[in-house]
Amino acid sequence: MQCPSCNTELPKKAKVCPKCGTAIGKPKGNLRVMAIIGFVVMLIASLLPMVQSGEKIKLGLYPKAYAFGYMNISMPVMWYLFIACIVVAIILVVARKEILSIIPVAVSVVITIVSFLAFDFNSVEGKVMGGGLKFVPHSLTDLLSNGYNGNSYHIGCGLIVLAIGVVIAIAGCFIDVVKPFKKDLHVDTKYLSNSLNQSLSNKIYYYRGFYLMFLPVFVMIMLFNYWPMLGCRYAFTCYIIGNPYYMGLYHFVTMFTNDVYFWQAFRNTLILSIIKLFLNTGAAVIISLLLNEITNMIFKKTVQTIIYLPHFMSWVVVASVFKMMLAPYDIAPVNSILMNMGLIDTPIDFMNSAQYWRGTFYVMNVWKDTGWGTILFLATLSGISPDLYEAAQIDGANRFKRLIYITLPALANTIITVFILNLAKVMNLFESVFVLQSPITYTKSQVLQTYVYVKTFGGGNSDYGYTTAVGLFKSFVGMILVLGCNWASKKVRGRGIV
């Protein structure tokens, strides 16, 4: 935790800054998080059915049950405008312009009203000549008053969730700017630099050169990282190239209730990724501690170079090397050694055995990534003051106690930071699994990424909508893991990195 006035690092549960005397208390009324949650709820609502058939509101909609929302409106551009308004509102809240963020929220509500009153909605009614889908337009007022095809229509869960999101967002934006609820900090100006007293526009103008240099990177990130996120809308459709049609949460209901292979892949993803994360981080810390004890610099640099090299090899090359070493023949290195030692009688097929596949996977990942992971830990160790070790040695502390009471506490922040950063990637396991797995080992090696690949490109009918839903769920779980670990870090260390 840091002092809000002078940024001095404070001990846990400190009430007064020892440097500037600022009273430290829990911030009052900082409801930006509440506003952002409201915006996220509105985003989710735009993907849910606004009007649907049936007497009860159902989240899962099957192909024969009609539902209407942003996904099957005759003007899809309205959904993109709605998303743009929400993104602008989030940016304004992050920039501490809470009162201005109410404007894009109001615009998004107007867009919703106009969309559902001025435009028609399309439903799939069979096929036309040539194999294309036949779309029939419907009016919202006609659906609610007269129904269609013998079915009565009611307000869907999307409108209810949207109303809840709007209330949460406006409450978070409005309450935070009301004076009695505002955070009141008494900051001594002598601890503030001139840059902190400048307005945002002045800062942008002053650092315009840096922003200009950052512009190409920003454009690239927006085009290749954020723009494809709009494709998440297809997780709620039966995706047919050129003619996707809305299916509500049908894919998610199927995923969670009927697809045993999905749960198998999800379980394997968590097991492989989390064990790999602990093994790689632990091995990197141990090797860093050992390298830090080496005094011969030539030998130390040589060892570092050798253990760094595997990181620059592609997974295809690494898998080929391990397949040759672990080949199920008596002349293969590993099987030959085990047979000569009398540990086995016949060669073991490590790559095609469900019993040994995971162990092989862990060894290969540790061998490839551990050396690269030592860089941050060695940099942290080099920053520890030698005076601490000398003082501890004078006090009679042996090498083990110096490791426990000086080295490891100094490494704690770096270990947690590396752990959180790598935790964000646990759901993205693909290359290292794909180059090793075979149909024989699917029960132990099939992960979400390879499952999506097989469902999309493995032959037969490619279900793009379903695989998009799986990818969206995977991203959501990864976000929850990172935020949860960051929250735990704040509880333990007093600060996180997100």
Automatic annotation (TrEMBL):
What topology in the membrane does the UniProt record assign?
Multi-pass membrane protein
Q: Which Gene3D superfamilies match?
A: MetI-like (1.10.3720.10)
Q: What keywords sit in the KW lines?
A: Cell membrane, Membrane, Sugar transport, Transmembrane, Transmembrane helix, Transport
Query: Could you give one GO CC term from the UniProt record?
Result: plasma membrane
Cellular compartments annotated: Cell membrane
Q: Where are the transmembrane segments?
A: 33-51, 77-95, 102-119, 153-175, 205-227, 270-291, 312-331, 371-391, 403-424, 464-485
| Main localisation | membrane
- A Pfam family of this chain: Zn_Ribbon_1
CDD domains documented for this protein: TM_PBP2
Q: Which GO terms describe its biological process?
A: transmembrane transport
Tell me the ranges covered by the ABC transmembrane type-1 domain, including all copies: 266-485
Family membership noted in the UniProt record: Belongs to the binding-protein-dependent transport system permease family.
The name this protein goes by in its record: Multiple sugar transport system permease protein
Organism (species): Lachnospira eligens (strain ATCC 27750 / DSM 3376 / VPI C15-48 / C15-B4)
